[in-house]
Amino acid sequence: MTTKIRQPLIVAVIGSLKDFGEIGKFSADSFDICELRLDLLYGKSKNIEALSRGIRSQKIATVRDPGEGGANALPETTRIEIFEQWLPHCDFLDIELRNLGRYSGLVERAAAEGKQVIVSFHDFRETPQIERLQEMLDSCGVRENWIFKVATKTSRWQDLETLAQFIQRNASVRIAAMGMGKFGKLSRLVLARLGSALVYGSISDAVAPGIWPVTELARLLAEIS
To answer: What does the alpha-carbon distance between residue 38 and residue 60 come to, in Å, rounded to a whole number?
Structure first.
């Protein structure tokens, strides 16, 4: 019996005030969710909440840890405060695997309020061996309302193969896998087709190496679905 491949949800990443203006020009089928990169938006405007209310899609609140590419060197206390502020206004929280234990209270509150959690891991130097990826997945005890996200540097074709095997080995788990760097753009198409739960696209300026503009991403995925 064949396993049906999940269709990925397309995530439009908002990392600047310019992005708020541009996203309103997109058609309804260009994306499914928007990610608010609150670390990038920190201090840019007092009206971020008001601007976000104008977006009808579901929202991911992300306050990226500086140790995994977060902006503005925000300390942990500030990041937690931002998450608590945004919890009522979002549908997903993106929390790094490294912070899962320390943010356990926030995670439990999110679950109690019917929110979903994206447990994320980022490696800007390499793609770990599949055994290491599996160890990280197994260690976090993925729940029904969680997505396990890995974003790694893909410098070689073998790195893309590792991420593909990781998705296929864990078909019963919602995994979002994507590459950055040389094979980044290719990885996002291939892994989306193989069952990655989420695929991210930029609105104006790219927020990660290897990311597609979201409208082009939607067009290409429609062609290869």
So the answer is: 10
- For the CA atoms of the chain, what is the radius of gyration? 16
What is this structure's pTM?
0.94
Read off the tokens for 222: 């429609």
pLDDT in the model for residue 5: 54
Do residues 175 and 146 touch, judged by C-beta distance below 8 A?
Answer: no
CB 120 within 8 A of CB 97: yes
**Within a 13 Å sphere around the CA of 115, how many CA atoms are in the beta-carbon half?**
25
Q: Quick one: pLDDT band at residue 2, thresholds 50, 70, 90?
A: very low
Contact between 167 and 192 (Cβ < 8 Å): no
Please give the Cα distance from 127 to 171 (Å, whole number).
20
CATH 1.10.1040.10, domain 9-224, yes or no: no
